[in-house]
Design goal:
The termini are far apart. This protein has helices spanning about 15-30, 50-60, 75-85, 105-115, 135-155, 160-165, 190-205; strands at about 5-10, 35-40, 65-70, 90-95, 120-125, 130-135, 170-175, 175-180. The strands form three sheets. The chain has a four-stranded parallel β-sheet with strand order 3-2-1-4. Strands 5-7 form a two-stranded parallel sheet. Strands 6-8 form a two-stranded parallel ribbon. The chain is globular, with a radius of gyration of 17 Å. The protein has one domain (about 5-205): Spore Coat Polysaccharide Biosynthesis Protein SpsA, Chain A (Alpha-Beta Complex), CATH 3.90.550. The longest helix is centred in the last third of the chain and has 18 residues, at about 135-155. The protein is α/β, with parallel strands linked by helices. It is built from seven helices and eight strands; from the N terminus they run βαβαβαβαββααββα. About 20% of the residues are buried. Component of the dolichol-phosphate mannose (DPM) synthase complex. Keywords: Endoplasmic reticulum, Glycosyltransferase, Transferase. Pathway: Protein modification; protein glycosylation. One of its GO terms (cellular component) is endoplasmic reticulum membrane.
């Protein structure tokens, strides 16, 4: 069976980024001869993101671009879970629409998974070869603080936690995490509260 890759792309006010990242996704995946589809989950963006998505469906076709909408902004994590329901591929790739996760890394993820038969492959900015670019001091401190908190509370790396709970094998690819191309960051109080809640729930499963 030929592998098919479903990319889930949550959007909220990503009108200026969506067409560009879709083009780059298609370019990278087509050059690698990978079978793929893009599942866009839009939380009723007021900037006409959905209209851009509909035009992309006209260009790429309904078999390539799938648009699913929700009535309001409901959060990144739930958008990924919602999108999974509509994936037809046997592998799922989750990423942001703002170029924080660049499509150029996807072939490395795929090749590592195929080579090692990993269940999960993560992009990490905290291993050798990874990093961040374009973040201000506050954003870096928030990120470092969140990662330090998770390590203290869980006393495991992300890979260890996942493997312990589900028995999955996990590989990591170094990536450079960059600031968004267009628009404003969605990181706010609700996202921070959601992170803390998720951390607590995860702790209770161990």
């Amino acid at each position: 069976m030929t592998d098919k890759y479903s990319i889930i792309l949550p959007t909220y006010n990503e009108r200026r980024n969506l067409a560009i990242i879709t083009y780059l996704l298609g370019k990278v995946l087509n050059e690698g001869n990978f079978d793929w589809e893009l599942v866009i989950v839009d939380d009723n963006s007021p900037d006409n993101t959905q209209e851009v998505a509909k035009k992309l469906i006209d260009i790429y076709g309904k078999s390539r671009i799938i648009l699913k909408t929700r009535p309001q902004k409901l959060g990144l994590g739930t958008a990924y879970m919602y999108g999974i329901e509509y994936c037809t591929g046997n592998f799922v790739i989750i990423m942001d629409a703002d170029f924080s996760h660049h499509p150029k890394y996807i072939p490395k993820f795929i090749h590592l998974q195929r080579e090692k038969s990993y269940d999960i492959v993560l992009g990490s900015r905290y291993i050798a070869g990874g990093g961040v670019y374009g973040w201000n001091v506050v954003r870096k401190l928030v990120s470092l603080g969140a990662n330090l908190l998770s390590r203290i509370v869980l006393q495991h790396g992300v890979s260890d936690v996942t493997a312990k709970k589900y028995g999955y094998s996990v590989g990591e690819v170094p990536i450079t995490f960059i600031d968004r191309l267009y628009g404003e960051s969605k990181l706010g109080g609700n996202e921070i509260i959601g992170y803390l809640k998720g951390l607590w729930d995860l702790l209770n499963t161990l």
